[in-house]
Protein 1
Amino acid sequence: MTYSTAQPPSLSDRLTEAILGIIRDQDLGPGDAIPSARELAKRFELTTPTIREALRKLEATGAVEFRHGSGTYVGPTINNVVLANPHRPPITKQSVLQLIGARLVIEPAVARESALSRGEQNLERLEAAVTNALVPPGGPAFALNFHVELAAASGNPLLEEVLASLLKVRLREQQQIRQLYDNRERDHEEHRAILDAVRAQDAEEAERLTREHLDNIRAAVDAADFPELS
Amino acid sequence: MTYSTAQPPSLSDRLTEAILGIIRDQDLGPGDAIPSARELAKRFELTTPTIREALRKLEATGAVEFRHGSGTYVGPTINNVVLANPHRPPITKQSVLQLIGARLVIEPAVARESALSRGEQNLERLEAAVTNALVPPGGPAFALNFHVELAAASGNPLLEEVLASLLKVRLREQQQIRQLYDNRERDHEEHRAILDAVRAQDAEEAERLTREHLDNIRAAVDAADFPELS
DNA sequence: AAAGGCTAAGTGATTTAGTCACTTTGTGAC
DNA sequence: GTCACAAAGTGACTAAATCACTTAGCCTTT
């Protein structure tokens, strides 16, 4: 049995690498425009459908972004190391509990680390996340997420990526959790308690409170009747 | 400033969803064939380049796989929640240390959890991972990875995914770490010690040993002269 | 001078109709 | 039975358009 179905790099593969090369060589960052598909087609002596295939691959991982009629731009996650799968499998109650289970392992340790490493700027953003949480009535998703900000406070972008990915992929679950988990009052209070511990650089307490917080959420989800899967 | 550049789902987006729908409806798993591009083009009343764009998006996340001349097949990571970015940024010494830093936060907690939850089957796979580690001289990559198997032993697939993603994205770094970190003898011994603690269900010790192990690796990397970036 | 609408150029989105290259399978000769 | 080979199915890519959308500049109107 040939285990590794390693195929030679396709033209499409080489193209994505080449395009990423252009982005790196010209030091383009998120939001910057990249050459048009027609332009790239000329440059590589290919046709636009071929170019578009490569661009779609990059789009799938957030490396580039299409804006109809305007152009193609460098995406926000081009420097990410770990990604949320955009083609996520459907939700089940089990998958929600699985998510919380993983968070229960990872986040207390992250909270401990963040309590030790947090800077002034982190505290500000955490404060904003705690406060904003109550603001948006049906608010959009670009509000700061407390748990992601908590990971950011560790100073290690990779930890932030991991947490952001976990929470993004399960965004729908998260929304359901929010609905199930009381009426946000308790959530807010617990976030504030964790923030206080982080502010005081009390690693032990931050870890304990985070575990407690997630335990509460798990209990709420576990007890609840779960909506149907879409 | 319009912060959320939320665009209406493109045809390509809807297509990927539809194709994933086919895969789910027909209960196809990794390795199963999906309809040919021509077939899909007929079914959706589109043309093959359009279909191919959607398939390339799915390819980028490992949801499908092309085999030239043969067909298109369901990929191995279709049920993954979190992914390693296939278009990863280049390596620096800093990025390697960042990786180890993240692992230092996550893995000890994972080891603790795994020590408590591990089953017989997990112990077997861990044993294999420890043993195999010494076997391949220039061996291929499908060898079991001890750290990933350790996460798998927690019983939570999400934790396994997170660790696998971290280690896969930084595979090149990992290879360099391996070169730097002594001559594998020490690595092997430390893995065995962790395995023993997990076997004995000594959570405290498993956590401590894992932290120590990663600390050693970090020290080795930190002290080493780092090869040039490609 | 400021506000609003029109126009033209640039760009992405998609079609149409092919050709070439590769893999698999089955058939027939040996 | 085995091997060679032809045929069918499939992915890879081309070529040349057309349509839809965005942007920026100009020009009118206020």
Protein 2
Amino acid sequence: MSKATIYDVARVANVSIKTVSRVLNGEPKASPETRARVMEAARSLNYKPSLSARALSGSRSFLIALVSSGGVSDNAMLYVTELQMGAIQACRAGGYHLLTEYIDLNTSDFDALTETLASTLRVDGVILVPPLCDDPQLLSLLAERGVTCVRISPTLNPDQDDAWGWGVDIDNYRAAFQMTRYLMDQGHRDIGFIQGHPGHAAAAQRQAGYRDALFDGGPIPERLIQPGLFTFNSGLPAARALLGQAQRPTAIFAANDSMAMAVLSVAYKMGIPVPTALSVAGIDDLPAASVVCPPLTTVRQPVMEMGAAAARFIIDRTAGQVGSYLKQIFDHSLVVRESTAPPA
Amino acid sequence: MSKATIYDVARVANVSIKTVSRVLNGEPKASPETRARVMEAARSLNYKPSLSARALSGSRSFLIALVSSGGVSDNAMLYVTELQMGAIQACRAGGYHLLTEYIDLNTSDFDALTETLASTLRVDGVILVPPLCDDPQLLSLLAERGVTCVRISPTLNPDQDDAWGWGVDIDNYRAAFQMTRYLMDQGHRDIGFIQGHPGHAAAAQRQAGYRDALFDGGPIPERLIQPGLFTFNSGLPAARALLGQAQRPTAIFAANDSMAMAVLSVAYKMGIPVPTALSVAGIDDLPAASVVCPPLTTVRQPVMEMGAAAARFIIDRTAGQVGSYLKQIFDHSLVVRESTAPPA
DNA sequence: TCAGATAATGACAGCGCTGTCCCCGTTTCC
DNA sequence: GGAAACGGGGACAGCGCTGTCATTATCTGA
């Protein structure tokens, strides 16, 4: 059945176990014939190496951890699902496996987490999503233990970023700039903006993109801008403030989809038809973005690819390739759906 | 740093490594004093046992796999995220870890998956979500390999279910019955229904609940029922068919939230106001259900708890407790939001 | 009083691999 | 022609734990 070991393969192929190991790991020293013989033996025995044994004796664990935090219901989690999917695919291709860990930010025991990751699991790397990827304490604990990490959409700290791991992101500035320009092309000039979480670099970059597109770097009129925290709930009061004004904007651009959905919700309740009387746009292209009414115009991030790249980075790095420790920027794309139209 | 091994602990506590192992695993033979000494030594050294070593030498791997399939964008995935969260929590409590695996149903290589799970990872159990949890081929492969599995919302096969693992579910019949009755209490009599995927037992049970509540077991008029597949897209034509009739229903109950959202979308496009001219209800309480317009009346399943129970079952079983091989039913609850109201 | 039960612990052999070191036979090149 | 270099492969010692069995000390009851 499933009990074939490397010894069995070695016996059948008539070589030493070391040679089997070499062939299976693609190490150089092995003649083509031997290689073929071993492969054949392995296949015929339906041999699969044991992860634990490999991890115990070697220096790799073939394990990558994806660490997330935050409330379930917050639909930012959706983003994590997609990331995970990409990471799993990359893991599979590399013979790796993905562990999912979760940490409650309230009772956050970073020490225990780090210890588990580094000592018990000996993972080859961890993938950190916001806001964990920006936590200096966690980052430095991980760095101390020598755990490779990849940060998703990180807030780079100019002093530390090279010690805190590689990151993947989109060009948030350009994404916001383009979306704003798209809205302007439709004829909008009075475009409200809902900010993202102030602790997250992407928030500032998106705002800058909006500002530069609409005001050419000049100041943003106060009536057009409202604070937000990237959550649906934080978008509600912001939308109400923007839409409650005597002369309300003809379009609202929220720094992410969750908040854009909040705008949709408030507009609906106030009886403001979208997109005829109000255009709404977001960023992220959450799965829900296409099922809300009307479907949301947004910016799509290649989240799956980003997850895959993150995993691949760890795999390659563990295998020896030392990549430069920086940030990889992925292409985004404008997704125009039905929540935007020229102003009345 | 992080290099403490069981040898170090044994040395510090002045006992043999076997005794350390015993204490740390909560095995019976150990005097209170020794136990205390070992615990202290372990703490002072910040010792964490190596998962690989434990797995390699013992009979448990401390690993549970959550296997899912299906397209990312389908918002049924949200459900998986929540399950995962629950499972992770239970894992943590038991010293276990959760692996996430994904299988593409198109190229579904169940053999390779099973082999990986059983031979490479030697997981202590797998959690299967629909529709995987109903695939006879996968189920029997897993059973052959002796892999414990827990099925989420499974379609029980009367001949085989005791060989195919334990399951967790809600009482779909009652959930649908109650929702239908709720709609009736509001004054609705003309309630349309959108069916779930015919291969999934929950679909039939939900339909039966609806039928028994509304027609007391009698036949459902054809004009009130439409086929669906549990996906948003499959709900679109069903909703159009229901709402396109000359005398359209005053309420539509979809077998799940994704399809209920499709109804919302179609109603929106047809200019039918919800809930004033049409009530809409679903089942699942997806995260998105509360952010669509109007927020959806639905039935909440305790998905997180179900995930936790699934993991706990595997952990307990591996530790020795042999649970009865059946299905555990969790309580659901009606969540009344704004998509339902008495008919005009 | 003494065999036998019970409690508390240790010795030791692996689990199934990888890393390190070593060996043998061919080339290669001055 | 001989030393060095290289390609191909094996022996062997662990990695850090758990399982099994042995050992000692203490206790039990007829």
